[in-house]
Specification:
Blueprint: H1 3-8, E1 24-35, E2 38-46, E3 57-58, E4 61-63, H2 71-83, E5 90-95, E6 99-100, E7 105-114, E8 128-135, H3 136-141, E9 145-151, E10 175-184, E11 187-190, H4 191-204
Parallel strand pairs: 1-7
Antiparallel strand pairs: 1-2, 1-4, 2-3, 2-8, 5-7, 6-7, 9-10, 10-11
């Protein structure tokens, strides 16, 4: 094969995260809502009946479906379903940086404005235990607490150590991740939700 013919296969190609076809993809929305003339951030508490992460604090969102035209559409759909609102009351939707997690997921966060009052929200009880808001001004004044998590590398028993330099004494590089914690009244906002919140706050500072 001619090298020029070979390289033509790459013309106009849009790169993506290597191996992303095996990742689960999710889209979330960081909702801003006006409360008594002040900008607030809206959070959900996941239903206690949920199979995964019951009772944890999160932003509206979920897995991207084949029916979604793109990540933004998925974030809108999920927010609409979880908060019991029409998509048209959500405006000014802009992307934040996406996250590739070490657990085989890609998360696409967005920020948007809810043009509706808190009293008009009708959260889906099957997914949402409760909703609450925090003043954005309060969160911007707070620095999150950071805690380091180390990931231990444990190859499977059949791993071919003889094929790599160092064999069983190979110097595996430990992986680390910072977990973020914010506190508001009796609420603990941590993990992915706190990371997205901090990212948004840094962009607006």
């Amino acid at each position: 094969m001619d090298v020029n013919d070979l390289l033509m296969r790459f013309k106009g190609r849009t790169p993506k995260v290597l191996g992303s076809e095996s990742f689960s993809e999710y889209a979330i929305l960081l909702p801003l809502i006006e409360v008594k003339g002040e900008i607030h951030v809206l959070f959900e508490v996941r239903s206690l009946n949920m199979r995964r992460q019951p009772g944890e604090i999160c932003f509206p969102g979920g897995r991207i479906d084949q029916s979604d035209s793109d990540e933004r559409a998925a974030a809108l759909r999920e927010t609409s379903e979880e908060l019991g609102i029409q998509e048209h009351v959500i405006s000014d939707i802009y992307p934040l940086d996406y996250i590739v997690s070490p657990f085989g997921t890609i998360i696409y966060p967005f920020v948007g404005k809810l043009n509706i009052s808190l009293e008009e929200l009708r959260p889906n009880a099957a997914e949402v235990e409760e909703i609450f808001t925090t003043p954005l001004s309060y969160m911007r004044e707070k620095e999150p607490e950071l805690y380091n998590i180390k990931f231990k590398m444990e190859p499977e028993e059949s791993f071919p150590y003889k094929q790599i330099p160092g064999g069983e004494n190979y110097d595996w590089q430990a992986r680390n991740m910072k977990e973020h914690f914010y506190y508001y009244q009796d609420k603990v906002i941590w993990g992915l939700t706190a990371r997205v919140l901090q990212h948004f706050i840094k962009l607006t500072s």
